[in-house]
């Protein structure tokens, strides 16, 4: 049973999110923050996407935000960016842009909610130019091969003097046949040559070349970012095979660096909106992640940009359905999300009677300062074992600045895949 004092506090502080105008209060609470982190308790819940879209729309319209960075690959997300900005070389439709998400788990971005949001972004951009255009970017680290290919393509098209260097740098990876784990194992255990120095040198050269340019040459920016992905992905896969917190930390440090690079590319006073899992955007120091030596975007953003400039919003649910795989790479399925476990944050929100609402922790830190289990669902999910590994001990008022809750949620609808119900 949930703590009755906690339930009473939530019942008093929670505000509804049942109609469009209710989102204005969240935007008001964000205030002058330049970095807004929007979480999700799972990668497969429709409401988390649609509600983040509603908050993002208002931040674009009312607060001058222009950068959206999501937990996706740079090359695939850049196809959406091209389409919403009406670039000459772009997909013919939003769904055509989403077709670039060909790596598992495709449903994270190739879904109906993102298709609808991309259409809205294109309309928002219709009469805008330059830095006033809203951009959509991926800031994850997984696209090693795709990012290398995009860098080569750009350098070849622009007849860049760095082309030959790039080809030599990326030839180092060829013996591993697009198998990141094979490369990581060989490089980590000195079974083969590490490609780190070649890629890092190329990245330095491309950054020097781009100095003095601005967002009007966004293809040059994209080449730099793809090379940054390659450099950090190389480190990530080497660290992954060794185990421990290093690979996680490399990934979240990469995400934070991409955020900073995007903000620098737009303008001195630019603002950024991030969409990523709660485990990335909620400050790691308020969870047991810190005990394991792990950092994350939520912590790093507060340290890098100033806590007063960052506003993090966690998202959660009590029960419903979700799309996920039962193992890595498995066919996605719509699964039932069981009722939250006793004593969890989600049970307390449910007991408080919050059907769809949010609450701010600012000014209420002491009342929400106890450590409590907080649900987290990944792209791999086995509901029958949820209570044994899907709850992160969290001090909610330190992990987030606010929290959005939907009691009953439903799964995302992919636009390409045909999931089966199980």
UniProtKB/TrEMBL annotation:
The record's listing under Pfam families reads: Erythro_esteras
Q: Which InterPro entries does the UniProt record give?
A: Emycin_Estase, Hydrolase/PRTase-associated, UCP036794_erythomycin
Give the protein name, as stated in the record.
Erythromycin esterase family protein
């Amino acid at each position: 049973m949930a703590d009755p004092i906690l339930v009473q506090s939530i019942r008093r502080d929670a505000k509804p999110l049942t109609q469009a105008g209710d989102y204005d209060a969240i935007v008001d609470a964000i205030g002058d923050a330049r970095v807004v982190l929007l979480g999700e308790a799972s990668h497969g819940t429709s409401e988390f996407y649609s509600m983040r879209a509603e908050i993002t729309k208002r931040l674009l319209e009312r607060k001058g935000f222009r950068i959206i960075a999501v937990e996706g690959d740079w090359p695939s997300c850049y196809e959406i960016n091209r389409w919403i900005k009406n670039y000459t070389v772009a997909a013919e439709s939003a769904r055509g842009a989403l077709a670039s998400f060909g790596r598992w788990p495709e449903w994270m971005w190739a879904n109906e909610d993102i298709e609808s949001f991309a259409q809205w972004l294109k309309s928002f951009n219709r009469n805008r130019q330059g830095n006033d255009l809203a951009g959509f970017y991926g800031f994850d680290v997984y696209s090693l091969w795709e990012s290398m290919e995009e860098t080569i393509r750009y350098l070849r098209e622009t007849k860049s003097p760095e082309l030959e260097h790039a080809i030599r740098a990326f030839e180092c990876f060829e013996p591993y046949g697009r198998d990141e784990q094979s490369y990581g194992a060989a490089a980590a255990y000195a079974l083969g040559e590490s490609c780190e120095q070649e890629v890092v040198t190329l990245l330095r050269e491309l950054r020097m070349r781009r100095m003095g340019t601005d967002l009007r040459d966004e293809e040059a920016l994209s080449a730099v970012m793809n090379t940054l992905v390659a450099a950090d992905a190389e480190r990530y896969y080497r660290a992954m095979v060794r185990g421990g917190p290093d690979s996680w930390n490399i990934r979240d440090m990469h995400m934070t660096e991409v955020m900073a690079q995007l903000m620098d590319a737009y303008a001195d006073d630019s603002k950024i909106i991030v969409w990523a899992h709660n485990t990335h955007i909620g400050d790691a120091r308020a969870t047991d992640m810190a005990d394991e030596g792990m950092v994350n975007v939520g912590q790093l953003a507060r340290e890098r940009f100033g806590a007063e400039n960052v506003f993090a919003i966690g998202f959660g649910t009590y029960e419903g359905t979700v799309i996920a795989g039962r193992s890595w790479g498995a066919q996605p399925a719509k699964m039932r999300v069981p009722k939250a476990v006793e004593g969890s944050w989600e049970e307390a929100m449910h007991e408080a009677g919050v059907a769809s609402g949010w609450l701010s922790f600012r000014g209420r830190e002491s009342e929400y300062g106890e450590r409590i289990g907080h649900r987290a669902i990944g792209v791999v999910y086995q509901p029958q074992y949820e209570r044994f590994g899907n709850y992160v001990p969290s001090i909610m008022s330190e992990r987030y600045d606010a929290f959005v809750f939907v009691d009953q949620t439903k799964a995302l609808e992919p636009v390409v895949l045909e999931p089966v119900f199980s």
